[in-house]
Specification:
By secondary structure, the protein is of the alpha/beta class. It has helices spanning 11-17, 19-30, 65-82, 91-94, 117-131, 151-155, 174-194, 199-231, 249-263, 299-310, 325-330, 345-363, and strands spanning 58-63, 86-90, 105-111, 140-145, 158-161, 239-244, 266-271, 289-292, 316-321, 333-337. The strands form 2 sheets. Strands 2-1-3-4-5 form a 5-stranded parallel beta sheet, sandwiched between helices. It has a 5-stranded parallel beta sheet with strand order 7-6-8-9-10, with helices on both faces. α2 (19-30) packs antiparallel against α8 (199-231). Bound molecules: 6-O-phosphono-alpha-D-glucopyranose (G6P). Residues 64-67, 111-113, 116, 119, 170-172, 374, 376-378 line the site of 6-O-phosphono-alpha-D-glucopyranose (G6P). Catalyzes the first step in hexosamine metabolism, converting fructose-6P into glucosamine-6P using glutamine as a nitrogen source.
């Protein structure tokens, strides 16, 4: 059952290993099987009504913690695939400084537990402040949650079930992956209905989504041993910097958050291009830099930012595809992931970072599943 460790030392590790299965379950639920034989149907099936999307001008996403990181990737996908402007707000900030009301706006609450107090209050507020306005301003509330019986699920008009199964480790792993899957589904659903992508392009993306479970399995099978050994080298490390750009900037944030949460090592996630405006001053041989360098629009940029860190003697760890001689030359250590189109890369890039944090914390003998001061679900403000 979900509440047993099944031979894993911690729930977190078990949940990291459940990710290929979670992605498969999401694909089973979100992809429309009819599409395989009939290309005139919508390839995505989220059970959402057309009305939710009619005349859509703006998307605002509200979340906390890891769900907020998934939302940043969601924003990228919605903007780049469906061409709709999207904002991501911390629920705790939104509550006390709600942005001016915009018409025809879809508000998405993203919460694994469906119970996070700040997220629930922010959505409640949005619902109330729009209630008496004219049609164009009426609330359109969508939830992305792992708990279809939660407070969030009752509050919103529609919810996408994350299908991650019970997550026990306080540090979110498989629920993050599931949230990304929900956002791929949503962005493609929007893109299909707004006709912003050609059928060929949709097909290409969907084919690649289907490869993800096997690719995550490959990372788990081939990388864990090496990551565990690498983790042992950081028993005295006090600071870490994670850098990424574009769709993988949120992965840098998530990599840093995982490390902070369970190993209590200070870590910062930064957009690689911003390094020179501050964090580069921190770098020396004692501060390892993890660069997420996935081929695509910003690949060369990230590599050159990584080289700048290397010039300050930082130990450089790269998350990058197998067999890139150029990358292996730059990085001291390489955490390899299968080669994949940039758009799909976050879901692979996060896995070695989860394993790295896990093994650093486990090696330090810390309580990985129940880190100090943290709760799985924060139901107070
Ligand atoms: C807590 C958890 C985090 C989680 C955040 C948001 O801080 O420790 O892992 O990301 O809450 O939780 P939610 O259930 O709203 O996704």
């Amino acid at each position: 059952t979900a509440t047993e460790k099944h031979g894993f030392r911690h729930f977190m590790l078990k949940e990291i290993y459940e990710q290929p299965g979670v992605v498969r379950t999401c694909l089973d639920h979100y992809l429309n099987l009819d599409w395989v034989t009939d290309r005139s149907t919508n390839p995505i099936n989220l059970g959402l009504p057309v009305g939710l999307y009619t005349n859509l001008e703006q998307v605002q996403i509200i979340a906390c913690g890891t769900s907020w990181h998934a939302s940043l990737i969601g924003k990228y996908l919605i903007e780049q695939l469906a061409g709709i402007p999207a904002q991501v707000q911390y629920a705790s900030e939104f509550r006390y400084a709600p942005p001016p009301l915009t018409p025809n706006t879809l508000t998405i609450g993203v919460t694994q537990s469906g119970e996070t107090a700040d997220t629930i209050s922010a959505l409640n507020m949005e619902k109330q402040r729009r209630a008496d306005l004219d049609d164009r301003f009426q609330p359109r509330l969508l939830g992305i949650t792992n708990r279809m019986q939660s407070t969030l699920a009752r509050l919103v008009d529609y919810a996408i079930d994350m299908h991650a199964g019970i997550e026990i480790g306080v540090a979110a792993t498989k629920s993050f992956t599931a949230q990304l899957m929900a956002f791929y589904g949503l962005a493609l659903d929007l893109a299909y209905r707004r006709q912003t992508l050609s059928i060929d392009r949709l097909e290409q993306i969907i084919l690649q989504l289907r490869q993800l479970p096997g690719q995550i399995e490959a990372i788990l099978e081939t990388q864990e041993k090496q990551i565990e050994e690498l983790a042992h080298e950081f028993s005295e490390t006090q600071d870490f910097i994670f850098i990424g750009r574009g769709i993988n900037f949120p992965i840098a944030l998530e990599g840093a958050l995982k490390l902070k949460e369970i190993s209590y090592i200070h870590a910062e996630g930064y957009p690689a291009g911003e390094m020179k405006h501050g964090p580069i001053a921190l770098l020396d041989e004692k501060v390892p830099v993890v660069a997420i360098a996935m081929p695509g629009s910003v690949y060369e940029k990230v590599l050159s930012n990584a080289q700048e860190a290397k010039a300050r003697d930082a130990r450089l760890i790269g998350v990058t595809p197998v067999n890139d001689p150029h990358a292996t030359e730059i990085f001291d250590d390489v955490l390899t992931v299968p080669d994949v189109e940039e758009l799909l890369s976050p879901i692979l890039a996060v896995v070695p970072l989860q394993l790295l944090s896990y093994h650093i914390a486990a090696h330090r003998g810390l309580d990985v599943d129940q880190p100090r001061n943290l709760a799985k679900s924060v139901t107070v403000e």
